[in-house]
Protein 1
Amino acid sequence: MSFQDLFPVDSLSVLQWQAMFPLLVLGAASVLGLLVSPIPRAGRAFAFASVSGGALLSLIGLSFMSFQDPVSVLDGVLYFDRSSQVFSFVILAVTLGCCLLSVGFDKREHLVAELYPLMGFSAVGMIGLVSSRHLMMLFISLELMSLAVYVLVSMQRRSAEAAEAGLKYFLLGGAASSVFLFGVTLLYGTTGTLELSALAQSAQGLWQGQVPLLFALGLCLIAVGFLFKVGAFPFHSWVPDVYTGASTPVTGFMISGVKLAAVGLMLRLGAEIFALPGLLESHGALSQVLSVVTALTLIVGSLLGLVQNNVKRMLAYSTIAHTGYLLLGFMALTVGGQAAAADAIASYSVIYAVMNLGCFAVLTLVNPEGHDDLMLKDLAGLGRSRPVLAFALSVFLLSMAGIPPTAGFFGKYYLFLSAVSSGHIALTVLAALASVVSAAFYIKPLVVMYMDQPQDGVSAPSPRWFGAGLVVAITLVLTVVLGMLPAWVSHLL
């Protein structure tokens, strides 16, 4: 077999090259950023300019593309459609935003210049994750994203917590990836294909009244790897420790970008594999398992978040609770057969990424120097010392709580509506109660900011970095505007 047979690059059309433009540009920019980052004194600025410029150029190019008719490259190894366009656009925006909010913070906290190219490489993996219908490409993209994030988490070399978080994430993430890959091999051994649509067709011909054991086991293993990446119960234990140990911009990158890519993968697998009629008719096993996982994820995230005094740890449990809401939409999409749930999941994911990115931009600006472990008491007096930042953080937190008329309210509304339409009324009621409970720990920072005095009587001076301030301004406007005009994101797919 020749090289041309393995990699038929010459056969790609102009449209296919255009579809790969964001991947190619951001990948090249990340490589360039990695090469220039060791340059003395100017390496950090060059790395930032390369990666942020590549993300911006990719963002502009993607906004002018239309994927109403899907574009397939190399028989589905890369598959660009409306879903991949939406998720790739937000991933690029999050990457650009995290690069901007890291400027100033990286130098003060002694983060190495490779921070920016690693974000770029991780974003390339995320785009590949949401732009493929081939299981091997999905695994490669997953590993590219994960390996870069492992290093990002432990980048604060002077912090023992960061080193512990990076090691824990590496070991557990590696185990989850192995489980995912084992599931892929079982599906391939059962069906003889790795392409999702062909796999679904092969699977439908295998079962006669029941799902084959090896196929079901392969799906279970893939689901375990997926549930780990989104931080669902019982694979959530790494989330609080890793999010707390990582530096604030990296935590924002993970909670916005990595979570978004995992949701894009969830939609792809849900629509292509987990919604197969034969699977859904197998004695309701899928519905029962998903119901238990969703319920426990909601309960754990909401209740454990109430007792947290560390801000990042509190937001870590918050993201576990938000995973429960997304799993509720996933049940409506697969078990309930509600095609509209895909739009609800996509719109909630976009809103979730926007408000979390803004929240961590604020936390980056108020973080004490040399103490990247923000506690609630560190926010005391912020309403008087930095009223604009306090107001922005209040809006983001209220949006996470689902308080109207913020964007978070309508995101939850669309998810709950799709779940009720699919018949999951009890789980929707539980999700609504969890939302009420979680509102209590979103209000705690507001009380501290506006009603408590700093312990020493004087608020510590906060930096005024332009990049982080710009991210706060843009995400604040989007959170308010999307709350006033939710139709803008209600039909993304």
Protein 2
Amino acid sequence: MKTCLVVDDSSVIRKVARRILEDMDFTIDEAEDGQEAFEKCRNEMPDAILLDWNMPIMSGLEFLKNLRGYVGGESPKVVFCTTENDIGHIAMALRAGANEYIMKPFDREILENKFGELGLD
């Protein structure tokens, strides 16, 4: 079964994403900041990561840079999911190794489309 780590400091966003992704046959794990997410990835690398940008302790961008530099960290498909919508943030995320970028609020159709484009459907 495919695995996805949902990383967001909002429990509501994590809950909504979990419901949608479980319906897409993903096994879900959650983290509320980048540091917790990195520790979980060191224990077991997921197939996909849905990643928030603005979080306490370690931001999504910091997490992504650490992940991509870690052995095996190049393999998960990373979808940034954030309210940051300017082209500079999007470019920074893609340069750091994000595979896709979606805006909050998102819905089932948006997640299904993005994950499908990445071959994760």
Protein 3
Amino acid sequence: MPLQQKTKQEIIKEFQVEEGDTGSPEVQIGLLSHRIAALVEHLKQHAHDLHSRRGLLSMLAKRRRLIFFLEKVDKKRSQDITKRVGLKN
């Protein structure tokens, strides 16, 4: 389910590294985390929705790869984003 434009802009503003930044790993991780949280809530009510579960697993893997990439590039930024999103290190 796509994010509403207003919600997406708020998330981008929260996680952007500099003004006008829409594609940095931090922004991508923030957007994915929001979508993951919404999908988890959906799956709590609809436990047998296997197609959505597969999409959730795909999003989790993509977020994990982005965090690993960021960890290679800059360990401090990686730790900062994991704390802001609410993941454990």
Protein 4
Amino acid sequence: MLKVDNLSGGYGKEPIVKNISFSVEKGEVLGILGPNGSGKSTLLKIISGILPKLEGTVEIDGKDSAVYSQKQFARKVAVLPQLHAHAFSHSVKDTVALGRYPHQSGLFSSWSNEDERAVNEALAYTGVTRYSDTPIELLSGGEQQRVFVAQALAQEAPILLLDEPTNHLDIAHQQQLLDTIRKQKNEKGVTVVSVFHDINLASLYCDRLLLMENGRIATIGDPKDVIQETTIGTVYNARVKTQPHPELPKPQMTLLPDTKEEEKPFTVNKQQFTVSADHVSFKVDQPLKTISSAVTNPGMGWYRAFVNRHVDANYNADDVKAEMADYLGKRGYHLTDTVGMMTAVTTEHAEIGEYKGEFGSVLIMVTAGVGNAVDVSESLTRDREQRIGTINTWVIVNGHLPDEAFIQAMITATEAKTKALQTEDIKDPLTGTIATGTSTDSLLIAATQEGEHLPYAGPITPLGKLIGHGVYDSTVRAVQAYKKAKVWPS
């Protein structure tokens, strides 16, 4: 559809873009990325004919673009430049209608039903129909940008060249515009080549990415192959972290500041726990990086308050998350800063320990009841109604953990809990076999992200050894306290 071969060019005799070669297939979206001055916009202008090429070729449908007349080229390629100049006052609809120029013929061309349809469709696609009769100069920069995108769409060319199409747009209109472009690709097979400043948007909406550096191609390929921490960090000279998008198989990038805000050395200790018959809480001044299976704020995040709440064994609520949020709010907990769990065990019997190693220390909190014990290997045979969790485990680390260490810590803590149940001879009452947990256990791993870097948390690592010993020891003590108190009969 579009083929660029050994293309060089720019504004003068010294090329800005050097020896660029790539091709884009019909119905493909290619995003062009690169730092300021890397040649992104220059490349697009050379392809569109706005700037001259010094060498190389641009082919459209197998033909050199130079053989097309201006109108013929415009029927093949629609261009949205980065900056727009409108010397004359036009209404929005008239501005969009200029996109139909390549389809007009003769000195006195008549406006056709097809022209009207294309313009109205483009207005609707970009959400500017309500401005049809408004002079374009009265619109905001973002609204004007959407009008010029509509003009390009009204042209109905099979190839779209876009230079920062989301410029001046808020996030809602960025999404709407890029969704529109993807819809053009999916429904009409439009080929799109677009310059982006926003790497995350480019990753979400493009099939492939071309990363430029100093006028040349640094790399080209699938977003997951281009948006690599080392590649982006080197080309942009910035510290970045990549992670998967929560809903799509696309990478997303986060900037990492070169320096943190200056803060005093930060550690946590056992004295920061508060225990009552109603709940166990743990509060800190600085947020901890956390992963959990909690009711309130599950998953990964940064939080300052942690609550393990006692509820009756027969607790029932139509909306558990809303009820829990109400409980926390009434007690002064900031919902966006708090992790909240529930347990059917009386929380005043919580076991809390502090376990010290050469790198620092680990705090463990366990509430454990075993009346709802389950052998996970026999769970297929069970039809018992799910009940509120009874074994809730917190592991809080004075140290710096990468993401993989959080996952390893969860595995190590779970293995230690299971071993503790074996030691205490806790059995699944329905199968008579050794239990591995209860039906709705919860687990939390948190870290200060200060102090020593702890890359692993497996059972033979310094961190894993403390977690394994601490969770085992605390769980055994919690189960023994439960048995002694008989707070929830089996």
